[in-house]
Specification:
With 245 residues, the chain is mainly α. α1 packs antiparallel against α2, α10 packs across α12 and α11 crosses α12.
Protein backbone atom coordinates (compact mmCIF):
# COMPACT_ATOMS: atom_id res chain seq x y z
CA UNK A 1 0.00 0.00 0.00
CA UNK A 2 1.15 3.57 -0.75
CA UNK A 3 0.44 6.85 0.98
CA UNK A 4 -0.15 10.34 -0.35
CA UNK A 5 2.76 12.80 -0.16
CA UNK A 6 0.79 15.01 2.26
CA UNK A 7 0.14 12.09 4.66
CA UNK A 8 -3.47 13.25 4.98
CA UNK A 9 -5.50 11.69 7.78
CA UNK A 10 -9.30 11.66 7.63
CA UNK A 11 -10.78 9.91 10.63
CA UNK A 12 -14.32 8.73 11.13
CA UNK A 13 -15.28 9.90 14.59
CA UNK A 14 -17.70 7.83 16.69
CA UNK A 15 -20.66 9.97 17.72
CA UNK A 16 -20.92 11.08 21.32
CA UNK A 17 -23.86 10.31 23.58
CA UNK A 18 -25.09 13.91 23.50
CA UNK A 19 -25.47 14.07 19.74
CA UNK A 20 -26.98 10.58 19.64
CA UNK A 21 -29.52 11.60 22.29
CA UNK A 22 -30.43 14.65 20.20
CA UNK A 23 -30.89 12.49 17.09
CA UNK A 24 -32.96 9.89 18.97
CA UNK A 25 -35.16 12.60 20.50
CA UNK A 26 -35.80 14.22 17.11
CA UNK A 27 -36.68 10.87 15.53
CA UNK A 28 -38.94 10.01 18.47
CA UNK A 29 -40.82 13.32 18.07
CA UNK A 30 -41.29 12.74 14.34
CA UNK A 31 -42.63 9.21 14.85
CA UNK A 32 -44.88 10.40 17.68
CA UNK A 33 -46.27 13.21 15.51
CA UNK A 34 -46.96 10.78 12.66
CA UNK A 35 -48.67 8.43 15.14
CA UNK A 36 -50.87 11.26 16.43
CA UNK A 37 -51.92 12.16 12.88
CA UNK A 38 -52.66 8.50 12.23
CA UNK A 39 -54.81 8.36 15.36
CA UNK A 40 -56.76 11.41 14.23
CA UNK A 41 -57.37 9.91 10.77
CA UNK A 42 -58.59 6.59 12.21
CA UNK A 43 -60.72 8.09 14.99
CA UNK A 44 -63.76 8.24 12.74
CA UNK A 45 -63.80 4.44 12.31
CA UNK A 46 -65.51 1.99 14.68
CA UNK A 47 -63.36 1.70 17.80
CA UNK A 48 -62.42 -1.96 17.29
CA UNK A 49 -61.28 -1.44 13.71
CA UNK A 50 -59.55 1.82 14.61
CA UNK A 51 -57.51 0.21 17.39
CA UNK A 52 -56.53 -2.77 15.22
CA UNK A 53 -55.47 -0.57 12.31
CA UNK A 54 -53.68 1.90 14.58
CA UNK A 55 -51.59 -0.77 16.30
CA UNK A 56 -50.71 -2.44 13.01
CA UNK A 57 -49.72 0.75 11.22
CA UNK A 58 -47.96 2.10 14.32
CA UNK A 59 -45.79 -1.03 14.48
CA UNK A 60 -44.90 -0.75 10.79
CA UNK A 61 -44.19 2.97 11.15
CA UNK A 62 -42.01 2.60 14.23
CA UNK A 63 -39.80 -0.14 12.78
CA UNK A 64 -40.02 0.85 9.12
CA UNK A 65 -38.92 4.41 9.88
CA UNK A 66 -35.45 3.35 11.01
CA UNK A 67 -35.07 0.56 8.46
CA UNK A 68 -35.90 2.86 5.56
CA UNK A 69 -33.53 5.65 6.47
CA UNK A 70 -30.67 3.35 7.46
CA UNK A 71 -30.81 1.31 4.24
CA UNK A 72 -32.24 3.68 1.66
CA UNK A 73 -30.97 7.06 2.92
CA UNK A 74 -27.33 6.17 3.58
CA UNK A 75 -27.74 5.65 7.31
CA UNK A 76 -29.17 9.08 8.04
CA UNK A 77 -32.61 9.42 9.59
CA UNK A 78 -33.97 12.97 9.88
CA UNK A 79 -32.79 13.03 13.49
CA UNK A 80 -29.29 11.88 12.58
CA UNK A 81 -29.16 14.38 9.73
CA UNK A 82 -30.09 17.15 12.16
CA UNK A 83 -27.33 16.07 14.55
CA UNK A 84 -24.75 15.51 11.79
CA UNK A 85 -24.59 11.75 12.32
CA UNK A 86 -24.72 8.64 10.18
CA UNK A 87 -24.78 4.92 10.96
CA UNK A 88 -22.41 2.69 8.98
CA UNK A 89 -21.09 -0.82 9.33
CA UNK A 90 -17.88 -1.27 11.32
CA UNK A 91 -15.77 -1.02 8.13
CA UNK A 92 -17.29 2.35 7.32
CA UNK A 93 -19.48 0.96 4.53
CA UNK A 94 -23.24 1.46 4.09
CA UNK A 95 -25.49 -0.82 6.16
CA UNK A 96 -27.08 -3.92 4.72
CA UNK A 97 -30.76 -4.63 5.32
CA UNK A 98 -29.77 -7.49 7.63
CA UNK A 99 -27.57 -5.23 9.77
CA UNK A 100 -30.31 -2.64 10.05
CA UNK A 101 -32.87 -5.27 11.05
CA UNK A 102 -30.58 -6.64 13.77
CA UNK A 103 -29.66 -3.26 15.29
CA UNK A 104 -33.31 -2.19 15.32
CA UNK A 105 -34.53 -5.43 16.87
CA UNK A 106 -32.17 -4.70 19.76
CA UNK A 107 -33.75 -1.29 20.35
CA UNK A 108 -36.18 -3.07 22.64
CA UNK A 109 -33.27 -4.25 24.81
CA UNK A 110 -31.27 -1.01 24.58
CA UNK A 111 -34.39 0.90 25.64
CA UNK A 112 -34.76 -0.89 28.99
CA UNK A 113 -35.95 0.45 31.42
CA UNK A 114 -36.56 3.88 29.78
CA UNK A 115 -35.29 5.71 26.68
CA UNK A 116 -32.11 3.79 25.83
CA UNK A 117 -30.83 3.45 29.40
CA UNK A 118 -29.17 0.08 28.73
CA UNK A 119 -27.86 1.33 25.39
CA UNK A 120 -26.33 4.39 27.05
CA UNK A 121 -24.53 2.30 29.68
CA UNK A 122 -23.12 -0.05 27.02
CA UNK A 123 -22.04 2.93 24.89
CA UNK A 124 -20.22 4.49 27.84
CA UNK A 125 -17.94 1.46 28.22
CA UNK A 126 -17.42 0.80 24.50
CA UNK A 127 -14.55 2.75 22.95
CA UNK A 128 -16.56 3.34 19.75
CA UNK A 129 -19.67 4.48 21.71
CA UNK A 130 -21.77 1.61 20.34
CA UNK A 131 -25.00 0.51 21.97
CA UNK A 132 -25.84 -3.19 22.26
CA UNK A 133 -27.63 -3.23 18.90
CA UNK A 134 -24.55 -1.77 17.21
CA UNK A 135 -22.27 -4.38 18.78
CA UNK A 136 -24.43 -7.27 17.61
CA UNK A 137 -25.03 -5.83 14.12
CA UNK A 138 -21.38 -4.72 13.75
CA UNK A 139 -22.35 -1.10 13.11
CA UNK A 140 -21.22 2.26 14.45
CA UNK A 141 -22.76 5.73 14.51
CA UNK A 142 -20.29 8.36 13.32
CA UNK A 143 -20.11 12.12 13.24
CA UNK A 144 -19.93 13.43 9.68
CA UNK A 145 -16.56 15.17 9.50
CA UNK A 146 -16.07 15.50 5.73
CA UNK A 147 -16.77 19.04 4.50
CA UNK A 148 -19.17 19.14 1.57
CA UNK A 149 -16.73 21.05 -0.63
CA UNK A 150 -14.28 18.15 -0.33
CA UNK A 151 -16.95 15.63 -1.23
CA UNK A 152 -16.97 17.00 -4.78
CA UNK A 153 -13.51 15.47 -5.23
CA UNK A 154 -15.22 12.09 -5.51
CA UNK A 155 -17.10 13.12 -8.62
CA UNK A 156 -20.15 11.32 -9.99
CA UNK A 157 -20.11 7.55 -10.32
CA UNK A 158 -19.86 6.68 -14.01
CA UNK A 159 -22.95 5.13 -15.58
CA UNK A 160 -20.87 2.06 -16.43
CA UNK A 161 -18.95 0.88 -13.41
CA UNK A 162 -17.13 -2.46 -13.34
CA UNK A 163 -17.34 -2.50 -9.54
CA UNK A 164 -21.13 -2.64 -9.41
CA UNK A 165 -21.49 -6.37 -9.93
CA UNK A 166 -22.93 -8.22 -6.89
CA UNK A 167 -19.75 -10.29 -6.50
CA UNK A 168 -17.43 -7.28 -6.48
CA UNK A 169 -19.71 -5.29 -4.16
CA UNK A 170 -19.68 -8.16 -1.67
CA UNK A 171 -15.90 -8.41 -1.96
CA UNK A 172 -15.59 -4.69 -1.28
CA UNK A 173 -17.71 -5.09 1.85
CA UNK A 174 -15.58 -7.97 3.12
CA UNK A 175 -12.09 -6.78 2.19
CA UNK A 176 -11.92 -2.99 2.35
CA UNK A 177 -10.95 -1.77 5.80
CA UNK A 178 -11.83 1.53 7.42
CA UNK A 179 -8.22 2.74 7.08
CA UNK A 180 -8.28 1.92 3.36
CA UNK A 181 -11.54 3.83 2.98
CA UNK A 182 -9.92 6.89 4.55
CA UNK A 183 -6.81 6.52 2.41
CA UNK A 184 -8.81 6.35 -0.83
CA UNK A 185 -10.76 9.47 0.06
CA UNK A 186 -7.55 11.34 0.94
CA UNK A 187 -6.02 10.29 -2.38
CA UNK A 188 -9.04 11.55 -4.37
CA UNK A 189 -9.08 14.84 -2.47
CA UNK A 190 -5.37 15.47 -3.07
CA UNK A 191 -5.12 14.09 -6.61
CA UNK A 192 -5.63 17.40 -8.44
CA UNK A 193 -2.72 18.97 -6.56
CA UNK A 194 -0.22 16.30 -7.59
CA UNK A 195 2.25 16.51 -10.46
CA UNK A 196 0.49 14.89 -13.48
CA UNK A 197 3.15 12.23 -13.97
CA UNK A 198 3.28 11.41 -10.24
CA UNK A 199 -0.53 11.35 -10.12
CA UNK A 200 -0.72 8.90 -13.02
CA UNK A 201 1.91 6.56 -11.52
CA UNK A 202 0.30 6.68 -8.08
CA UNK A 203 -3.20 6.04 -9.38
CA UNK A 204 -2.01 3.17 -11.55
CA UNK A 205 -0.19 1.58 -8.61
CA UNK A 206 -3.17 1.91 -6.28
CA UNK A 207 -5.60 0.84 -9.01
CA UNK A 208 -3.53 -2.23 -9.83
CA UNK A 209 -3.47 -3.17 -6.14
CA UNK A 210 -7.27 -3.01 -5.88
CA UNK A 211 -7.86 -4.77 -9.20
CA UNK A 212 -6.04 -7.78 -7.75
CA UNK A 213 -7.59 -7.48 -4.30
CA UNK A 214 -11.15 -7.24 -5.63
CA UNK A 215 -10.75 -9.61 -8.59
CA UNK A 216 -11.70 -6.93 -11.14
CA UNK A 217 -11.02 -8.13 -14.68
CA UNK A 218 -11.43 -5.06 -16.88
CA UNK A 219 -8.39 -4.27 -19.06
CA UNK A 220 -9.93 -0.96 -20.14
CA UNK A 221 -10.42 0.38 -16.59
CA UNK A 222 -7.69 2.88 -15.75
CA UNK A 223 -6.16 3.09 -12.31
CA UNK A 224 -7.66 6.51 -11.60
CA UNK A 225 -11.15 5.51 -12.73
CA UNK A 226 -11.01 2.44 -10.51
CA UNK A 227 -9.85 4.48 -7.51
CA UNK A 228 -12.56 7.11 -7.99
CA UNK A 229 -15.29 4.53 -8.68
CA UNK A 230 -14.31 2.56 -5.59
CA UNK A 231 -14.19 5.67 -3.40
CA UNK A 232 -17.54 6.91 -4.69
CA UNK A 233 -19.12 3.55 -3.87
CA UNK A 234 -17.62 3.57 -0.37
CA UNK A 235 -18.84 7.12 0.24
CA UNK A 236 -22.16 6.59 -1.50
CA UNK A 237 -23.79 9.56 0.23
CA UNK A 238 -21.66 11.92 -1.80
CA UNK A 239 -22.51 10.57 -5.21
CA UNK A 240 -24.34 12.54 -7.81
CA UNK A 241 -27.94 11.82 -8.88
CA UNK A 242 -28.93 8.23 -8.33
CA UNK A 243 -32.14 6.29 -8.56
CA UNK A 244 -34.09 4.35 -6.00
CA UNK A 245 -33.44 6.33 -2.85
Amino acid sequence: MVVTPEHVEIRLTPAGLGSRFLAATADFILVAAASWLLFRVLSSLPIGAAIALFLTIKFILTWGYHLYFEVRANGRSPGKKLAGLRVVDDRGLPLTLQQSMVRNLFRAVDGIPIFYAVGAVVALVDRHRRRLGDLVAQTVVISETIPSHKASALGVVRSFNSLRSPVVLQTIRNRISLDEREFLLALCIRADGLDPAARYDLMEEVGSHYKKKLGVEDPFLSGENLVRDLTSLLFSEYRGPRGGS
